[in-house]
Backbone:
């Protein structure tokens, strides 16, 4: 198996520090509890001036069985009755937001995540869509991006037919790993046939941009076992594949304490798994979009990257640029106008706020001019794997090389190590630098501690 580019294990390990994923800038740890409901409502109102399309994210926190690796905000329960009061409070949140938004704005993007949205019954899914449509007006446009995360263990062909009827046109299926030993080690037993059956039906129904989620760095994984999983996934031919780096943080996530640390692949083996993944997927025709995302060349993510319109938000990479993101549900994050804001992460606090007719705003931040400049620079690096300083200067009316002089000086060591090149007024990540793009972006982050912050995951 040929390497896709020159591989330098020592260099990768040296730069494998803790760092943000930059789904926002400033990152979540810079959000302030002094930012409250009134600040968020003011931002919602201001956003109507530019009348950008809307992106709605709905967080469904429930799942029936907790996977040991999971670091998401979720509630493991088999009590399906918990969904009804939660849906009622979601509707209450929409009611409180609606008066502050011009609902003539198109809802170009919709994403249900969790937990697992497939915890909901089909009737509950219909009810939630009806409520969203009544409050915001959903789109029928052919280029809308309406996605939902599905647990193949909790869905069948009838689920997919129902989702299509509700207007969803993209699916993301959690796979993790197809090796039964790894599945048992992380408490997620999921026979391959479940995934294949859903993929076949989704293809027949005409869903586009099907995504499969994998995770590397899990217990009992080796480069050979993961290669076997990749062979099977490639044969399924999804349009997108996400291969996430498992971040083992048992001090933060209780479920991870059930993982036997001795079974985790060591740093050398984990890098070998990553090397195998990139070689196999690019060899099979997938474009390495960045970080953990791969897509076929004709997929909207790859097209957006070629056209320079790829965007990053709290759901990862997105082909729908320039949307205001409204997050609904416990722990959901919004990015609208010039603010980032997060809802309460504990269900009881979320419920109490809404029961008192208040938005469940827990914390947030309003971006300064400097934040907006740096967020633009970081986002372009993360999406384009390059940064055009002339474009940055024109966009913000600044002399970008002078304005960002301290950040650019931090990149000089990375340039000497072959992670980037300066081409006129463009910073371009090398193939190896693309794997460390989070490290390149960190040079522009003035909120970041100068020492590695272990609240963040490792870069590779």
Residues:
């Amino acid at each position: 198996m040929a390497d896709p580019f020159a591989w330098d294990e020592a260099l990768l390990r040296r730069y494998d520090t803790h760092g943000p994923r930059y789904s926002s800038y400033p990152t979540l740890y810079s959000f302030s509890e002094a930012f409250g409901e009134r600040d968020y409502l003011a931002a919602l109102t201001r956003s109507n001036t530019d009348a950008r399309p809307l992106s709605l994210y709905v967080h469904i926190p429930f799942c029936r069985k907790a996977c040991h690796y999971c670091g998401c905000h979720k509630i493991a329960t088999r009590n399906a009755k918990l969904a009804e009061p939660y849906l009622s409070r979601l509707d209450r949140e929409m009611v409180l937001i609606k008066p502050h938004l011009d609902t003539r704005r198109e809802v170009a993007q919709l994403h249900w995540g969790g937990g697992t949205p497939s915890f909901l019954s089909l009737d509950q899914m219909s009810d939630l869509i009806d409520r969203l449509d009544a409050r915001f007006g959903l789109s029928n446009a052919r280029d809308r991006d309406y996605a939902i995360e599905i647990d193949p263990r909790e869905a069948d062909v009838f689920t997919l037919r129902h989702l299509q009827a509700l207007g969803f046109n993209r699916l993301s299926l959690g796979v993790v790993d197809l090796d039964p030993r790894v599945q048992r080690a992380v408490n997620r037993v999921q026979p391959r046939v479940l995934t294949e059956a859903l993929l076949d039906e989704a293809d027949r129904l005409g869903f586009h941009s099907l995504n499969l989620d994998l995770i590397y760095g899990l217990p009992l994984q080796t480069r050979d076992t993961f290669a076997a999983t990749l062979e099977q996934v490639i044969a399924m031919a999804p349009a997108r594949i996400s291969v996430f780096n498992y971040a083992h943080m048992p001090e933060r996530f209780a479920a991870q304490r059930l993982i036997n640390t001795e079974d985790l692949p060591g740093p050398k083996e984990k890098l070998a798994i990553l090397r195998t993944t990139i070689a196999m997927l690019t060899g099979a025709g997938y474009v390495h979009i960045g970080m953990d995302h791969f897509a076929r060349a004709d997929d909207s993510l790859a097209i957006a990257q070629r056209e320079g319109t790829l965007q990053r938000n709290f759901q990862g990479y997105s082909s729908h640029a320039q949307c205001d993101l409204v997050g609904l549900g416990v722990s959901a994050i919004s990015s609208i106008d010039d603010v980032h804001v997060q809802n309460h992460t504990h269900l009881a606090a979320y419920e109490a706020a809404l029961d008192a007719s208040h938005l469940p705003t827990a914390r947030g931040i309003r971006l300064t001019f400097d934040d907006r400049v740096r967020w633009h620079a970081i986002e372009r690096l993360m999406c384009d794997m390059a940064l055009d300083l002339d474009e940055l200067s024109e966009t913000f009316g600044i002399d970008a090389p002078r304005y960002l002089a301290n950040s650019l000086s931090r990149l000089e060591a990375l340039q000497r190590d072959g992670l980037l090149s300066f081409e006129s007024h463009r910073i371009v990540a090398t193939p190896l630098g693309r794997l460390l793009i989070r490290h390149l972006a960190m040079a522009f982050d003035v909120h970041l501690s100068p020492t590695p912050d272990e609240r963040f995951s490792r870069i590779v």
